[in-house]
Write a structure and sequence with these properties.
Layout: H1 2-11, E1 21-30, E2 37-46, E3 49-54, E4 64-67, E5 72-75, E6 77-82, H2 121-126, E7 130-135, E8 144-152, E9 164-174, H3 177-181, H4 187-206, H5 208-212, H6 223-233, E10 239-243, H7 246-259, E11 263-267, H8 275-281, E12 284-287, H9 306-313, E13 317-319, H10 333-342, H11 347-352, H12 356-361, E14 379-382, E15 393-398, E16 401-402, H13 408-415
Helix pairs in contact: 4-6, 4-7
């Protein structure tokens, strides 16, 4: 009955004239709150919050009115595997702030200090409807990779330069063939190291005073790494593990239960084989439904219906661009969600997998992920089906601000569109 409550609340709102009000009218509104779709509906925004959603909603005097003309209206999309603000050109090492090589720490690496709010990739991604992202670390030669951050993509547009929504939002790790190489090449050694790291972090946290006096036992990790693992073991942030082989996931399920860790699997190409175990353990999965090729012995059972099988088993899924080749293209999240739908995933489930579900997995669902009263005003109006590869947004709103549908790529295209012009417009 949530929709009825929203409609009732919306009818009694009384708005004064407010230049910061926005009303999106005549929309096919996908709230993603409970699967409801409201036809000819209105979404009203005040400042940076949604204040009304429904049919027969009062439009405040002086509001900016956006007529959706029956087109889809959805929450802003969230891609939870990106290098947003950390990467410009993949082949240039000086443009990479997501990999820490040769540092004395690993789990303690925090990406938020290196974020660039002026990255040219932000508007390129924003014009395709992605309004939030998780920007994540990577590591070579380490089991634990560091701390990722949740960011919004409205920077440089009147929202200030602070793009961070939540710093130190999750700890990242790897488990499988490549991660095992850092521990002598065996998965058994990898599991032992991970368990020892957790035990050390718990011991360190209980004996900080003795540690400062050099009166504790030796630990396998640096102090900064132990500090970074404590919130994982206290349940404050999730541990996101890149893993693909089904047998590896079973080991991790056991570790999650043993240490009471909020664990999320990323990539997870063989997750369908252990779907019931993941559902029972309430472990969420971040996947790219288009990943169906056996690129290594870790994922020989990759399949295009991975997302559907996980959904059918009751596993909470988030769809994201998990492949290395997509680091510069997080906007492709709608395309790969569409691949999931083409292979049996229901449309509503695919839309939830790029809005509500990632917000829930990363603990920001109280403010983002659905079109409900009180949520942050991240809203997108689309030309048509948002999961069709040729469909683009007509309007993007982030935290109550209308975004320019502009990027460096678009301006370069327009600069050279008229080849008869001997002097193309100066590019800024």
């Amino acid at each position: 009955m949530r929709t009825l409550l929203v409609l009732t609340a919306a009818l009694v709102w009384s708005f004064a004239a407010n230049a910061d009000s926005i009303a999106i009218i005549n929309g096919t509104v996908h709230t993603v709150a409970d699967g409801s779709v409201l036809n000819n509906a209105t979404v009203v925004i005040e400042d940076d919050k949604i204040v009304a959603v429904g049919v027969d909603v009062y439009v405040p005097i002086g509001a900016i009115v956006i007529d959706a003309g029956g087109r889809p209206v959805t929450p802003g999309l969230m891609n939870v595997v990106t290098k947003m603000g950390l990467l410009e050109v993949g082949q240039v090492s000086g443009a990479d702030d997501y990999t820490s090589v040769g540092a004395p720490f690993s789990a303690g690496f925090d990406v938020s200090a290196g974020l660039n709010p002026d990255s040219v990739l932000i508007p390129v991604t924003r014009v395709d409807g992605v309004t939030r992202a998780v920007t994540v670390p990577s590591a070579f030669g380490s089991v634990f990779w560091g701390l990722g951050a949740i960011v919004h993509l409205g920077t440089g547009t009147g929202l200030g330069d602070d793009m961070v929504v939540k710093a130190r939002a999750a700890q990242y790790a790897g488990f499988g063939g490549r991660a095992a190489d850092a521990m002598g090449g065996t998965r058994g050694g990898l599991a032992v190291f991970m368990r020892q790291a957790f035990d050390d972090a718990l011991h360190y946290d209980a004996n900080r005073r003795n540690f400062d006096q050099n009166r504790t036992r030796d630990y396998v990790l640096h102090q900064l790494d132990l500090d970074a693992l404590v919130p994982v073991l206290e349940g404050d942030i999730p541990l996101v593990v890149t893993v693909n082989r089904a047998s590896d996931m079973r080991v991790l399920v056991g570790l999650a239960e043993e240490y009471n860790i909020r664990m999320v699997f990323s990539s997870a190409r063989e997750a369908w084989k252990v779907a019931d175990d993941l559902a029972a353990a309430e472990i969420g999965v971040i996947i790219d439904p288009s990943n169906n090729l056996p690129t290594s012995f870790d994922n020989v059972y990759a399949t295009l219906d991975n997302a559907k099988r996980l959904y059918d088993a009751g596993v909470k899924i988030a769809i994201a661009t998990t492949s290395f080749n997509d680091y510069n293209n997080p906007r492709n999240v709608t395309q790969i969600a569409g691949v999931g739908v083409a292979n049996g995933l229901p449309f509503d489930a695919a839309l939830a997998a790029i809005t509500r579900n990632p917000a829930e997995l990363f603990g920001v669902d109280d403010e983002y992920g659905t079109l409900e009263v009180g949520k942050d005003a991240d809203v997108v109006v689309w030309e048509g089906d948002p999961l069709e590869v040729t469909v683009l947004p007509t309007d993007v709103i982030i935290k109550g601000k209308v975004m320019p549908l502009d990027s460096r790529q678009i301006r370069l295209r327009d600069r050279y569109r008229d080849l008869s012009d001997p002097e193309p417009m100066q590019f800024r």
